[in-house]
């Protein structure tokens, strides 16, 4: 057997495996749209079956018409802007507080032993039980909604920050000590890059939870926002309005999650290169 045939055989195997991986990747991309199409067809058939009244299970066309109505008159944009403002403000405050406190807890056992029981107890309280108290204490304006949103965002980001900082290998810390790095240098060049993958995982969870927090606050007391639209539609049995507002909230949550995933690709692209 010649040397050229020996070299061609592995190349042929690699190309066949590569083509198989490409076909598998294309097949996987079709799964989510196919499942969504199946849900849409099931919804359409159920709405047209006559088993339920229109105000209980409206058709997709009725929901689309209602969504277009509130979008064309500007009310959807106005209410979505209120909710987005609450979400972004609560998300930023919650992430900042969680990162700061999570870093301190990971670095200090005294702080960990002091605060951990209270943080766990706070997380154990349902947010719907705290929201009315926050409305009473801080009023029905944006402040109470931002606090509800920040509280819901806080705990997942706190846990991921603690895990990220605590899971840094001791050998890397010893290396920084041998280089006589300052605490600030250790933070920027070791702790933050090493903990970033786990922290961005917490950011993805927090991004979706922030939308839930804002809506919970609007459910309790609000005169604007997508949560208010849902409450209003429920009160007058305007089910298409409720579903249209829910779809808008879903799009908002998916957008925030997509931004977190884009940030992950931007900041952690070096991991794929190193592999």
Structural write-up:
- The model has no long low-confidence stretch (mean pLDDT 84).
- With 275 residues, the protein is mainly alpha-helical.
- Helix 3 packs antiparallel against helix 4 (109-124), helix 8 (183-220) runs parallel beside helix 9 (226-235) and helix 9 runs antiparallel to helix 10 (239-267).
- It has helices spanning 3-48, 60-72, 75-107, 109-124, 127-138, 142-166, 170-178, 183-220, 226-235, 239-267, 269-274.
- The chain folds into 2 domains: 1-51; 60-274, MetI-like fold (Orthogonal Bundle), CATH 1.10.3720.
What key attributes describe this structure?
MetI-like fold; single chain; 11 helices; 275 residues; 86% helix; mainly alpha
Discrete helix count: 11
Q: Between the first and last Cα atoms, what is the distance in angstroms?
A: 35 Å
Counting helices, strands and paired strands, the structural category is mainly alpha
- The CATH topology of the largest domain is MetI-like fold
Strand content: under 5%
Biggest sheet statistics: none
Mean pLDDT: 84
- Name the CATH superfamily assignment of the largest domain: MetI-like
Order of helices and strands: HHHHHHHHHHH
What's the CATH class of the largest domain, please?
Mainly Alpha
Basic shape: globular
Rg, alpha carbons: 25 Å
**Uncertain spans:** none
CATH architecture call of the largest domain: Orthogonal Bundle
Q: Quick one: how many beta strands?
A: 0
């Amino acid at each position: 057997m010649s040397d050229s045939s020996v070299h061609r055989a592995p190349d042929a195997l690699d190309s066949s495996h590569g083509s198989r991986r490409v076909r598998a990747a294309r097949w996987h991309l079709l799964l989510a749209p196919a499942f969504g199409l199946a849900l849409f067809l099931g919804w359409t058939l159920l709405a047209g079956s006559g088993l339920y009244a229109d105000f209980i299970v409206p058709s997709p066309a009725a929901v689309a018409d209602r969504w277009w109505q509130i979008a064309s008159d500007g009310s959807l944009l106005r209410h979505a802007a209120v909710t987005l403002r609450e979400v972004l403000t609560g998300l930023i405050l919650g992430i900042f507080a969680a990162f700061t406190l999570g870093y301190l807890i990971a670095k200090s056992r005294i702080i960990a032993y002091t605060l951990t029981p209270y943080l766990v107890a706070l997380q154990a309280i349902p947010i719907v039980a705290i929201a009315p108290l926050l409305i009473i204490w801080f009023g029905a304006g944006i402040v109470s909604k931002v606090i509800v949103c920040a509280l819901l965002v806080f705990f997942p980001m706190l846990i991921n920050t603690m895990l990220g900082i605590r899971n840094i290998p001791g050998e890397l810390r010893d290396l920084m000590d041998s280089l006589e790095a300052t605490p600030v240098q250790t933070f920027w060049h070791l702790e933050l890059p090493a903990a970033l993958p786990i922290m961005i995982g917490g950011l993805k969870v927090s991004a979706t939870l922030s939308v839930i927090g804002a809506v919970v606050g609007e459910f309790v007391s609000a005169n604007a926002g997508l949560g208010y639209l849902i409450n209003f539609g429920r009160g007058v049995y305007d089910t298409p309005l409720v579903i249209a507002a829910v779809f808008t909230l879903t799009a908002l949550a998916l957008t925030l999650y997509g931004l977190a995933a884009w940030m992950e690709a931007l900041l952690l692209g070096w991991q794929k290169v190193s592999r």
